[in-house]
């Protein structure tokens, strides 16, 4: 299984790559080939200060690659030029990656314009599952906020086809998952709310996970989906939220529902965003 790990060579990005726990977790779900990608901004041209970006980034990636190789992965490095989210997505598609990993410091408005913007743009456009690895926001030498990436999962579902696609990732996540919380949020706009069978639908999903030895609870809520999913995160403290993306059309990607984008931007912990299955 191939994965792309995007880095801007900041301390936040380095925290993901240097974490033995994170590497162990992605290895446990079947990743054996890791592609380290860094993007030189397209507005950096010859003659400008910092034009040695590419050489410096190659040296940094060589250092990271030794860490990843020592953890038992095959490694390839890519230093490319352009718009970060487009180039990261392009490499993931080219190599046939099953996972893209990007670090993010979280909710700071200023940082979201810079670091968080790549994560958000990838959330809108990715065609492979996207793991947003949350990093400490205020520290000079930051660490990841929640280790053991997939140990405690919070899976949010609206029972759509796209949510089912996200649930299917448990087929490999189960090798690293011990606990799961399955959440469905009913809204006042839901048709037939009074006759809802959400509890039984969640129970069926829970049975599948219990058969894999995953301790599972279910939780049906009412209200705004993003707010309630984040409230469930605060209550159950999962290591990662698993959610599907609806990005079928260009407009939908811009709005993103906009539940998925809200969760990527506002979650305290990690988020695994799964896009719709591609037509073959």
Automatic annotation (TrEMBL):
<dbReference type="InterPro" id="IPR006016">
    <property type="entry name" value="UspA"/>
</dbReference>
<protein>
    <submittedName>
        <fullName>Nucleotide-binding protein, UspA family</fullName>
    </submittedName>
</protein>
<feature type="domain" description="UspA">
    <location>
        <begin position="150"/>
        <end position="275"/>
    </location>
</feature>
<dbReference type="Pfam" id="PF00582">
    <property type="entry name" value="Usp"/>
</dbReference>
<comment type="similarity">
    <text>Belongs to the universal stress protein A family.</text>
</comment>
<dbReference type="InterPro" id="IPR006015">
    <property type="entry name" value="Universal_stress_UspA"/>
</dbReference>
<dbReference type="InterPro" id="IPR014729">
    <property type="entry name" value="Rossmann-like_a/b/a_fold"/>
</dbReference>
<feature type="domain" description="UspA">
    <location>
        <begin position="4"/>
        <end position="132"/>
    </location>
</feature>
């Amino acid at each position: 299984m191939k994965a792309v790990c995007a880095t801007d060579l900041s301390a936040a990005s380095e925290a993901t790559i240097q974490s033995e726990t994170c590497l162990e977790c992605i290895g446990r779900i079947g990743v054996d080939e890791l592609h380290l990608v860094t993007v030189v901004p397209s507005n950096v041209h010859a003659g400008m200060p910092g034009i040695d970006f590419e050489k410096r980034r190659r040296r940094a990636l060589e250092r990271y690659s030794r860490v990843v190789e020592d953890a038992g992965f095959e490694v390839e490095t890519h230093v490319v030029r352009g718009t970060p989210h487009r180039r990261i997505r392009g490499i993931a598609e080219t190599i046939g990656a099953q996972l893209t990993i990007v670090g993010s410091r979280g909710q700071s408005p200023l940082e979201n314009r810079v670091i968080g913007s790549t994560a958000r743009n990838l959330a809108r456009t990715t065609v492979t599952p996207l793991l947003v690895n949350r990093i400490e926001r205020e520290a000079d030498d930051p660490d990841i906020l929640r280790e053991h990436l997939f140990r405690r999962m919070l899976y949010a579902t609206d029972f759509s086809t796209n949510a089912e696609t996200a649930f299917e990732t448990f087929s490999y996540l189960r090798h690293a998952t011990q606990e799961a919380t399955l959440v469905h949020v009913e809204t006042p706009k839901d048709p037939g709310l009074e006759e809802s069978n959400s509890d039984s639908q969640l129970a069926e999903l829970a049975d599948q996970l219990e058969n894999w030895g995953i301790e599972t609870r279910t939780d049906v809520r009412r209200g705004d989906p993003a707010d309630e999913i984040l409230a469930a995160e605060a209550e159950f403290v999962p290591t990662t939220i698993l959610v599907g993306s609806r990005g079928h059309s260009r407009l939908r990607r811009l709005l993103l529902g906009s539940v998925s984008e809200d969760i990527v931007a506002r979650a305290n912990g990690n988020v695994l965003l799964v896009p719709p299955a591609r037509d073959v």
